[in-house]
Amino acid sequence: MGEFDLIARYFTRPVRRAALGVGDDCALLAPAPGMQLAVSSDMLVEGRHFFADVDPEALGHKALAVNLSDLAACGARPLAFTLALSLPRVDETWLAGFSRGLLALADAHGCELVGGDTTQGPLNLCITVFGEVPTGQALLRSGARPGDDLYVSGTLGDARLALEALLGHAPLPAEVLARARQRLERPTPRVALGQALRGIASSAMDLSDGLLGDLSHILKASGVGAHIDTYITSNLIAEKAYLSGENGHFHLEFIRQCTLAGGDDYELAFTAPPARRGAVAAASQASGTPVTRIGTVLAEPGLQLVDAGGQAVEHRYASFDHFR
Ligand code: ADP
Ligand code: MG
Hints:
The chain is of the alpha+beta class. The chain contains 11 helices and 11 strands.
């Protein structure tokens, strides 16, 4: 099978919203009047972001999910994406699974595959997504103000738990690993929540490298600090019952590592004034996405972590950095 047959079979879909999709030199796409285009790219490299033997269907899902998560963080509605793919060989079983996972998530969000590039080489995937957001209403990292509440969506740390287990660092029963692994391999981009938070959240971002490290970007961009209740964040790991139960021999320290610096969560972290608590609750309800208040924005720069007794928690949870 040649390059063009491969593109035709696995990556060519009729487009509805874009004026032109796969097959010409460019795709053609316009945001609706009054909307801005939100654009983001994310690359996934074998051995770096995923194991060589990962289920291709899950990989297709994740490659698009991490990109949709960036649109969610800006409050944008997904429109379309391009896929640049470098493949060691044509493996039709792999391609069928990969495109199934990719296009199922694309369909679920009405996000059309409009073009890309395909070459031979080490396995490497790069997606660029395009979304739309009403002009001036995108959620940014720079809007957090002292006194704002600090929130995260969903759960934290389960992807890291699965990663530690797969690396042989944390033995887990098969059913616990299976659940945590879903969070690592098939993250849920919080697209509906991001849009529901437009006009409510003062700042937002998605969590890919770990809560504390990612949060520091919001704090820096906004010129503020924050206080975080770690007894609340420690409860946000979905496998909490196992980890702290009779059979779980994991320490609070490990739970903190996963929840505060886990990485691969793809949840949203955002801030909003206390006067908008009702509106945040309504956005959570309307989008079917749980959110939890985990702290407060402070005028003084820096992150203060506090435990249940009000004691300061020493903060040494580095976030993921490819070059460190
Ligand atoms: P060009 O040589 O002009 O860059 P290509 O021959 O690389 O074009 O690609 C032909 C068409 O197929 C283009 O419309 C391109 O966007 C599309 N395409 C190539 N690879 C992919 C892919 N992996 N997924 C979706 N569309 C693709
Ligand atoms: Mg080309």
